[in-house]
Amino acid sequence: MVAGASAGLGAAFATALARRGIDLVLVARQQALLEPLADRLRQLHGVEIRTLALDLAEPGALETLARATATLEVGLAIYNAAFAPLAPLVDTPIEALARVVDTNVRAPLLFARTFAPAMTVRRRGAIVLMSSLAGLVGTPRLAAYGASKAFALTLAEAMWAELKPHGVDVVAVCAGAIRTPGYDRAAAGRSAPGTMSAQAVVARTLAALGQGPRLVPGWINRVAAWVLGRLAPRRLAIAVMAGSTRGLS
Fold it and tell me: For the whole model, what pTM was predicted?
């Protein structure tokens, strides 16, 4: 199960899993983007793929997802959907802030709760929640997004401790900048230090399953997370993160 699968990192997850012969359920808002990806992966790898056009921020979306997968054994559930308005908090419309909560907080919480029980019964499975380096330190111009990614991180860590005795792994992926169409547009062609391809993040994530609860892909990002989280004074860490978003638009 890949939520947020239509492009970028989600499409890279789908491609890597299909290459391994794993059948897929791909979820995103736009069916017009999901179906071409699904058709290509079916033809290339001979896997069964179901697509579901669904906005996970909408009320009742997780119930719809649960019904659509009720007959399936979902062994790996990846929550990659996100909403990230880029602006100072006081300049961000309240509606956009509410969508951050619905997409990045409520939906991954219910997503994990939907698929974890059956995994514990089978005593195998894994849940991946996409967090961010922005969830480790307050990030100006991405305040709500960063706070939501901190939620994903603490949720994954707690669930990892709860589910590990039942044979289920949970990992939060604290990625830095990822070279996706959305990031390239926001960065206007400039790449932050430690920027990784979506394929590299996916490969590192899949290799880390069973080693949860936290993964920071890329050695530059791991060094940055360690320095900002442990060595640098908090004010300096926040200033560094402010610099990382200053050139985004």
Answer: 0.91
